[in-house]
Amino acid sequence: MSSETAPARASSAPHLPHKWLRISGLLLVGLFIAYLDRSNLSVGIKNIGTDLGFSGEEFAATSSLALTAFLVGYLISNFLGGFLTARIDAKWILLVTVAGYSLCTLLIGFADSVGVLVALRVGVGIFEGIYWPQQFRMAKAWFDDREMSRASALIQYYGQYLALALGFFVLTPVEATFGWRPMFWALGAIGLIVVLPLYARFLPTAPGTTTAAAGPDGRGRAGRLSFAAFGGWRFVLLVFSYFTNGMLFWGITLFIPLIVPRFGFDPGMAGLMAAAPYLVSLVLTVPMMILADRTGRRALIAISGLVVGGVLLACVMLTDSHVTQFALICLGLGYFTASYTPNIWAIAVTDLPAHAVGPATGIINGFGAGGGGIVAGAIFGPLLAAAGTYALGLSVLGLIAILGGGALILYTRMRPTPA
C-alpha cells in the first residue's frame, strides 16, 4: 500500500515523558527567537540606512545586500550543521548556535558601518544555518512517523510563523518607539538569558546521534552517507521543490515591510498588514496538519500548497487593485505555507534513514532556503526597477512555485512503497 493512501508506519522512537513540551515546545520557542533575529532587519532597515549613511540612492542596493547577507552564511552553514549531526549530539550544537546567533544579534545594535552590519548578519546566518538541521535530528529520534506532521509543525512551523506574524506586528512599534539599536540589543539578550538556559536545563539529548550509533540496522554499525542513502535522484527533486519554496517565501518575507506601504494602508497599521499573510497561514495550518497525519497524504497536500499558492501569487500581476493584490498575497502565502512547510519536513524525515536526516535536511534547507532566498532577492531588484512595482516579481515567484509542485509530483511517483 502506498504511503500516500494510508498513515505512515510508526517508527521505533524512544519514549520520553512530556516530549511534546520538552522537545516541540522548547524548539518552538528557540526558533521563534531565531526568526525574530533574522527578520528584524527588515523592520529597521530604513532607519539603519539613515544612521549608517545609505538612505539615498544607495538604499536599494545596500539594503538588498544587508538583507540577503544572512542567507549567504545560512546557505553554507546548513551543510556543515547537517553533517555535524552525524558526529556530535544535537543538543550541544543547539546550545552553541543559540549563543552564537544571539551574540551576533546583540552586537548588530552597536554596528557603526555597513561592513560591520553585513559581517554580523552573515554571522547570524552561519549560526542559524548550523542550528536548523538539529531540529529534525531531534524529531527523528523522539517522534514516530504517525506524529511527524504535528511534530514538524510545532518544532519548525509554528516557531517560524508565529515569529513572522507577531514579529512584524510587535517589532514595528518597538523599533518606531525606541529605535533599531535597542531592538537588536533586546532580542540578542533574550536568546542569551532565556533560550540558552532553557535548552541547557530541559532539552534532552538525541539518541543515536553519532554515526557509530546510527547504523542502518540500528545496532551500532556506521551508516554510510551516500547519494543512495539520501534517496538518489528523487532527493534532487525534493531539494528543487524546496528551492522554489525558498524563493517564494523569502521573496515575500524580505520585502513585505517595503511592499505594504505601497498599498496605501494607514502607517499605523503597517505592522499588522505585514503580519497578515502569516496570520492567515497560522489559522490554516491546524486543519492541514491534522488532515496530513490522519490520512497520510502529506505529499498531495504539500503539492497543493506549491501549486495553489503559486497560482494565487501569479495572479497578482493581473490586477491593479491594491486590495485584491494584498488579498492574493495573504491567501497565496497563507495556503502555500500551511500546506507545504510542515508536510515537506515530515516527508523528508520519515523517508530518510536516521543517520541521513541531519545531513539531508541541511542540504535541503541550505539550497532551498539559503539559495532560493538569495536568488529571490537578486530577482526582485531588477524586476522592481523595470516595472516600478513588486507585482511582477511576486507573479514570477508564483510561477516558479508551480514548477516546484511539478517536481514534488515526480518525487512522490519515485518514492518506495512500504512493505
Q: How would you portray this structure in words?
A:
The protein is mainly alpha-helical and 419 residues long. Helix content is 77%, strand content 0%. It has helices at 19-52, 59-84, 90-108, 114-142, 148-178, 180-202, 227-230, 233-253, 256-259, 270-295, 298-314, 322-351, 354-387, 391-414. Helix 4 packs antiparallel against helix 5. It is globular and about 55 Å long. The relative contact order is 0.16. Mean pLDDT is 84; it is low at 1-11 and 209-222.
Could you give the order of the helices and strands?
A: HHHHHHHHHHHHHH
Highest-level CATH class: Mainly Alpha
* Helicity range: over 70%
Our count of domains comes out at 1
Supply the helix-strand structural class: mainly alpha
The number of helices is 14
Extract low-pLDDT stretches.
1-11, 209-222
CATH superfamily: MFS general substrate transporter like domains
CATH architecture: Up-down Bundle
**Rg (C-alpha, Å):** 20 Å
CATH topology: Growth Hormone, Chain: A
Q: Whole-Å distance between the termini?
A: 8 Å
Q: What does the main sheet amount to?
A: none
Characterize the overall form.
globular
Give average pLDDT, whole number. 84
Query: Which range does the strand content fall in?
Result: under 5%
Number of strands: 0
